[in-house]
Amino acid sequence: MMRNRKREWFDDDSFWRELYPFMFPEKRFASTSQEVDQALKLAKPQGKRALDLCCGPGRCSIALARRGFAVTGVDRTRYLLAQARCRAKAARVRIEWVRADMRDFVRPGAFDLVLSMFTSFGYFDDKREDLAVLRNMFASLRPGGTFFIDVLGKECLARIFQPTKSDTLPDGTRLVQRHEVFDDWTRIRNEWILLRKWACEEFQVPPHGLFRTGTEGSHGSGRFC
Ligand SMILES: C[S@@+](CC[C@H](N)C(=O)[O-])C[C@H]1O[C@@H](n2cnc3c(N)ncnc32)[C@H](O)[C@@H]1O
Fold first, then answer.
1. What is the 118 CA–ligand 1 centroid distance (Å)?
2. Which stretches does DSSP call E strand in 30-129?
3. Which residue in 88, 103, 126, 212 has a CA-CA distance of 20 to 30 Å to 188?
4. How many angstroms is it from 2 CA to the middle of ligand 1?
5. Atom of ligand 1 minimally distant from the CA of 24
């Protein structure tokens, strides 16, 4: 059950559906196995119960299930959960899918590992809401469990930053992305413009926080004891 809240950019399912081919091309699925192996190497979970928070189309959930984890995938976007179900069926793995907002989902003491992959954290203007997500992650871990958050560190971004970028799909659909870093490299504002033969669609993703990563890495993990 989803709580009634002020509508925000991530509540727009058409954003995820329209950008799906750009955000989740097959090569992203192909690299997931390696990504999950790296995450597991860093996180060193002590058990096999995993929560994939903001699981999207289930990339990491499926990779974890293939490694013997009992996985719960949580996401708020119906379209992406439908993709996840389909892919899990094709991969012949059983996963529990839950439609919920990351600010609400909590299952006390249920998991050995909580994963938040591919910049799925830091979405809220009110930082108390990000904190609520962290509290939920903490409460959902059993004592000694591990959380793993994969975000883009500002030092990494500074190295690769391009204010404007364009990609084209084989069907000719073009995506123009415009990014603006502001507030002294603490936040980023994104504009995504989809150009089709006769139509133009525009999505604006309000400011995200940028993360300082002491060692230039882009992952953070910790163990709650
Ligand atoms: C960039 S995608 C990452 C998907 C997945 N973690 C992966 O690695 O492929 C971000 C995901 O966050 C989900 N999301 C955004 N806001 C959310 C919220 N408030 N509660 C739950 N999920 C949310 C979106 O539906 C989307 O699946």
1. 8
2. 49-53, 70-75, 96-99, 111-116
3. 103
4. 15
5. 9
Using N-to-C axis directions, what is the helix angle for 78-91 and 13-23, rounded to 10°? 40
**Mean pLDDT across the chain, nearest whole number?**
90
Ligand 1 contacts (CB < 6 A) are 10, 16, 54-56, 59-60, 75-77, 80, 101-102, 117-120, 123
Whether the CB-CB separation of 166 and 174 falls below 8 Å is answered with yes
Task: Render pLDDT for 154-213 as a digit per residue (tens, 0 to 9).
Answer: 899 999 999 999 999 888 899 999 999 988 888 888 999 999 877 788 887 766 766 654
Q: Are 79 and 101 in contact (CB under 8 A)?
A: no
Closest protein CA for atom 12 of ligand 1 = 54
95 burial class (0-12, 13-18, 19+ CB within 10 angstroms)? buried
Query: How many residues in the chain?
Result: 225
Q: Which of 134, 150, 143, 67 lies closest to 112 in space, CA to CA?
A: 143
> What Cα–Cα distance (Å) separates residue 212 from each residue in 50, 76, 171?
27, 27, 38
Cα–Cα dist 51/74, whole Å: 8
Amino acid code (one letter) for 219? H
